[in-house]
Amino acid sequence: MLLYRNYLSWFIVMFKINNKNKFLIQRLLDASSGFLLSFVFLLLKRKKRIIFNSTVNTDFTFNSKYLFINHKDNLETQGYEIKFVINDIAKREALSKKYGDYFISSKGFSNKCYILNAAGWIMSTMDPPIGGIFLNHNRFVLQLGHGTPIKNIGLMDGSASWLKRAYYKLMTTNVTYYLSPSDFFAEYIGKAFGISHEQVMVMSQPRLESMSYSQSDFINQFRTDGETKLVLYSPTWRPYEDVKLFPFADYSTQTMEQQLIEGNMVIFVRLHPKFEGDLSPYLNSQVINLNSQVIEDITEHLDQFDILLTDYSSIYCDFAMLDKPVGFIPYDREAYQKAVGFSFDYEEVTWGDTIDSVEKLFCIDKRHRPGEQLNILNITPNAQDIDCLLNDQLRKIVLTNN
């Protein structure tokens, strides 16, 4: 097993580490770590246990986080043991202090066996808690996703390498059901993962239950009065280059701060958590870096903002549920379409005038609220739907007697 892992590690470093594949390396290493052991557990009965995880077992984020927070009490009432995989020791200890003894590691033989004995796995990504194939055999595995698929995902992603596509194809053998955030995207979800429509469940995303879950003092300190506009600027990452902030002809670092002061506006810049870069050239008293070290998961703080700025990030689909203005900055739409692509025509799933100047930035108002598009992006949160699905599917798993 060690020799196999060493060969895989050598093979992986042959790939250039860039925006296109650097995240894939950790995925492949994790997938290899428990691959052989997983076959031993294929035919065994399961414990009444549910394991949650998020991105490569390192993050406490996305839909699995909020299903865990909002539904663990109900699951425990039914006799299920609930755990969330966090491999970072410091993070695991901090979360245990806040939420209780729910957090475990996937490292080590005993931990892997513990996870593989579980009746259910609930994931935000295609990364299972333990690597392997056919892991949905006598196990309910729910892939919740981590956002409405505005840009291409999975097998439809034009920037995905052959290795990443192969990884996705293998991982689809592990999943029982995939969540689609609305009927509009259900067929696309099937295509993105190469699965039948029977494996796609239309349900509200668990994180939509929690957009007003927390209040950050760090964010609130910048609201000086009732007229202050707090703006979240959250562009997505590009596989071909770093994102360009404030890509406007009339933008000037020298004058932007004063313009924001006069407009009583504060902009919080949040890049993709896995592709954060140096923001120092843009920062001032009114432009604030809101990276993942300040706030790991932005979802529960969305209601603290008055306006959202983005490009192709699906964060706007969640923010739109709050009926607040969204400004779109698709400055490189043609390049992004060619490299990644969109699930549907960009115009069909967005609204309002494109923000292509600093002047327009200060004109975002109620005209930039979602219209009819809101109905296709997400269905209204309904906790009972999720509980019913979990109850129905988990009772089908063959359990041990103890």
UniProtKB/TrEMBL annotation:
InterPro entries: Glycerophosphate_synth, TagF_C, TagF_N, Teichoic_Acid_Biosynth. GO terms for molecular function: CDP-glycerol glycerophosphotransferase activity. Keywords: Cell membrane, Membrane, Teichoic acid biosynthesis, Transferase. It is found in: Cell membrane. GO terms for cellular component: plasma membrane. GO terms for biological process: teichoic acid biosynthetic process. Transmembrane segments: none annotated. Belongs to the CDP-glycerol glycerophosphotransferase family. This is Uncharacterized protein. It comes from Photobacterium indicum.
